[in-house]
Amino acid sequence: MFSHGNCKICSMRSKGSYGGVQRRSTPKWGSTLPERRGGLKRTYIQPRSDKRAGQEKEYAKIKPKNKECFFCGVAFKKAEHREKHHLTGRRGEKLVDKKYIYNVHGKCHMQYHNDSIHTWEWKDGFLLRLREVDRTLYEKELNKLEK
């Protein structure tokens, strides 16, 4: 027994409190927030900064020049769908760094991101092309191969 012949849980239910603390009648960030904080209103963070929005516009215009898939090395057909692959990622200025953006087949792109390096049929050719572009990226991929 806790209080007034009730167990702890029943006591909390009957008093409208939880753990000895009264529940709020209004939410913490309710309609009374501006009055309590001197008339301040909430500000929201933009989904993307102005700088990033400019980078995304520039990125939409980038057309990589390679005529074959960077992964498998097979030439693209005239109307074949191509995807862009970023060798170094998309963060910050890397989004628009043309040196590391290459056209790839959608199927090869999915294999690269979802499958183990040991299952790629095109890994040897890919590693040769990668070594020509950037030696450190080549070494990272070799480390994955050794695991």
Overall strand count: 4
Our count of helices gives: 6
Largest sheet: 2 strands, antiparallel
Terminal CA distance reads: 60 Å
Q: Uncertain spans, ≥5 residues at pLDDT below 50?
A: none
Overall mean pLDDT score? Answer: 82
Shape: extended
Q: What is the H-and-E element order?
A: HEEHHEEHHH
* Helix proportion range: 25-40%
Radius of gyration (Å): 28 Å
Can you give a write-up of this model?
38% of the residues lie in helices and 8% in strands. It has 147 residues and is mainly alpha-helical. The protein has a domain at 64-146. A two-stranded antiparallel sheet has the order 1-2. The protein has a two-stranded antiparallel sheet with strand order 3-4. Strand 1 and strand 2 (21-22) form a beta hairpin. The relative contact order is 0.09. The mean pLDDT is 82.
Key phrases:
4 strands, two-stranded antiparallel ribbon, mainly alpha, 147 residues
List the helices and strands and how they pair.
Elements: H1 8-15, E1 17-18, E2 21-22, H2 33-36, H3 50-61, E3 83-86, E4 101-104, H4 106-114, H5 123-133, H6 135-146
Helix pairs in contact: 5-6
Compact overview of the structure:
This protein has 147 residues and is mostly helical. The chain is 38% helix and 8% strand. The chain has a domain at 64-146.
